[in-house]
Amino acid sequence: MFGCLVAGRLVQTDAVQVASDKFVFNLPEYESVNHVVVFMLGTVPFPTGMGGAVYFSFPDPASGGPVWQLLGFIANDKPSAIFKISGLKVGQGGAHPFGTMASPPSVAQVGVSVEPLEQLAQQTPVSGAAASTTDTLRLFTQKMLDSLYNFASSFAVTQAQMTPSPNETFIPSSCILKWYDNFHRRMNQNPNFWKN
Questions:
Q1: Which of 31, 54, 84, 173 is the most core-located residue (most Cβ within 10 A)?
Q2: What tens digit of pLDDT does each residue of 120-166 get?
């Protein structure tokens, strides 16, 4: 029903069912993991009005057991989500549906708990783990365009301020702005246009 993906690793579809509505993935060597993708396999949808709360657990040496943290949720109309786990703090956690089950030492876990959608909407994920909603490539491109324009604009001079320099080529800032607007428009229309 669910899958879990960490960059550089094989997709995990071997969730351990710990209760009729609870599933857990083991993540060995979690210290090097920055983001986790949790998704539905597309074979079995959630029952109507239900979704899956996604939790993350570090092994907690202080308590001897796992401490679970709510990351967010997935649902039939939101079948996948990316969660940032690299900034989460060991030992910080709250209420969770997984009870006192033990995890293997030095193995983190991702849990999915099937719950009513209205209950999922009222839960607050742990700070810093919000699902990524911005396309990374688009965000990078926007930041790059802003940086180029700001950098080029910092050298702007009026025609009256220009001094002749035979070894220098000057480009009107309106040309850079036109390129910026065209690139931004094309990126919004098709984020992969640059691959053609």
A1: 54
A2: 888 888 766 664 444 566 677 777 878 887 888 888 888 888 888 88
14 CB-near residues (< 8 Å, 6+ apart): 25
Per the structure, the complete domain to which residue 172 belongs is given by 136-190
Shared domain for 166 and 76, answered yes or no, is no
Q: Which residues contact 76 (CB under 8 A, 6 or more apart)?
A: 40, 45, 46, 51
Do 105 and 157 sit in the same domain of this protein? no
Residue 195 within a domain = no
Among the listed residues 146, 85, 135, the one whose alpha carbon sits nearest the alpha carbon of residue 110:
85
Residue in the structure block whose two tokens are 């009026």: 158
111 touches 24 (CB < 8 A): yes
Rounded-to-integer distance, Cα 13 and Cα 34, Å: 19
Q: What is the pLDDT of residues 170-182, one digit of tens each?
A: 888 888 888 888 8
Helical spans, DSSP H, in the chain: 117-122, 136-153, 173-189
pTM: 0.64
Q: What gap in Å lies between CA 38 and CA 6, rounded to an integer?
A: 9
Same domain, 44 and 103: yes
Beta pairing class for 107-116 and 22-28? antiparallel
| Shared-domain flag, residues 115 and 33 | yes
DSSP class of 90: T
* pLDDT tens digits, one per residue of 104-125: 667 888 999 999 999 988 888 8
